[in-house]
């Protein structure tokens, strides 16, 4: 299943609404990508499954600071 390893974000349930307002259950998947990220503090690459929203925030804050917000120890991954 598509799931972010840092935030734990997964697919959500929603409704597909037709023109006649008939609601049908559907899944809204998150955009999970497998990425190899360089961590300068550790001096190595780490391979993670993260969402594209996570990638944007990591570019802004840094991987260790972002993972610390969610209580994830990046050194063990």
What does this structure look like?
The structure is a single chain. The protein has 77 residues and is of the alpha+beta class. Helices cover 22% and strands 36% of the residues. The chain is built from two helices and four strands. A two-stranded antiparallel ribbon has the order 1-2. Helix 1 packs across helix 2. The model has no long low-confidence stretch (mean pLDDT 95).
Could you give the topology of this structure?
Blueprint: E1 12-17, E2 23-28, E3 32-39, E4 44-51, H1 52-61, H2 63-69
Antiparallel strand pairs: 1-2, 3-4
Helix pairs in contact: 1-2
The low-confidence parts are none
Q: Count helical runs.
A: 2
Gyration radius, to the nearest Å? 16 Å
Main sheet, how many strands, which sense, barrel? 2 strands, antiparallel
Relative helix content: 10-25%
Output mean pLDDT: 95
Q: What amount of the residues lies in strands?
A: 35-45%
Give the overall shape, derived from the CA principal axes: elongated
The H/E string reads EEEEHH
Instruction: For the record, give the distance between the C-alpha atoms at the N and C termini, rounded to a whole number.
Output: 18 Å
Q: Could you say which structural class the secondary elements and strand pairing correspond to?
A: alpha+beta
Spatial order of the strands in the main sheet? Answer: 1-2
Q: Number of DSSP strands?
A: 4
């Amino acid at each position: 299943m598509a799931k972010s390893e840092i935030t734990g974000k997964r697919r959500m349930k929603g409704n597909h609404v037709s023109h006649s307002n008939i609601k049908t259950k559907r899944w809204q998947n998150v955009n999970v990508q497998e990425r190899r990220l360089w961590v300068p503090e550790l001096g190595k690459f780490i391979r993670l499954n993260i969402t594209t929203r996570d990638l944007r925030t990591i570019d802004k804050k840094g991987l260790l600071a972002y993972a610390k917000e969610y209580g994830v120890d990046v050194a063990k991954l």
